[in-house]
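Narrative summary of target 7.
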Amino acid sequence: MITAAPAPIISVVIVTYRSGATLGRCLAALRAQTAPSFETLILDNASGDGLAAAAAAADPALRLMQMDANLGFAAGNNRAAQVAGGRWLALLNPDAYPEPDWLERLLAAAEAYPQVRCFTSRQRMAADPARLDGLGDAMALIGAPYRGGFGHRDPGVIDAGEVFSACGAAMMIDRALFLEMGGFDEDFFCYCEDVDLGYRLRLRGEAVRLVPDAVVRHEGSVSTGGRRSDFSMFHGARNRLWTFAKNTPPVLLALTLVPHMTLTLVLWLAAVVRGEGAATTRGLAAALEGLPRILAKRRAVQAQRRVSSVQIARVMSWSPMAMARRRARITPP
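Modeled conformation, tokenized:
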């Protein structure tokens, strides 16, 4: 009699696109994990470099999903989530390298806080681990998302608590919840799709918890040409406006629309001064072109809202200096 293997507790999902040498380092870090039960799914977005296929051939334990076209980070994770076998989804960028107890620490947090169904990691810069790559994502009151703590020196001891949303580079979410929420918004392709999901979770009354002892080292934007590439600037400008328009509850929208548009203008002018105006302009134009579709989604999102504007505002960053300096916003549960 053949006994079926037990289902894994966690499905680690890695979406790759021309990820270069980082994928091998990421997979090596996963092989060193101390967690007892997890599977690894690689979804390759038609990279054409053969690296994902070679990794899967070398390790039969890996599950490879090979796409015929580049679906983007959002749709790629959605496809993988549909076939994942674990109760939990651990989303991991191919340029993020988890410490050996990363999954174990995330699972311990899930057991300690059974009411929480989404968790984010402490991210250190791969090139300079003494500095933070982020402590989840924060949201300024005027509707501008940013990586909390990005570029700051890692203080060592960090109290656990809630953040506005999880960073998609290294997060864990209940698979059933992810699927119930419709996963990431595939219109976003990549950039801000994690903030959009986190905002929708917040509107539904779900919490997102930072697990500071679940640590990864993150390169950042390896597959997209860097944080200031034309690709990154286009998608960042477009998706930031979509996130604001789609998710901001009515009272907050009325209070922050003018400040948000003023910030958008300031960021556009700064991009022009840096020589990045063309990509940013195209991003904003694409945002306006797609706005009717986003507003249709807004109606569905707001219809499912279970919390007030005041409750959302309480978990936002109110200080302009905190946003400018990318200070983390961690609140008690």
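The chain has two domains: 10-218, 230-305.
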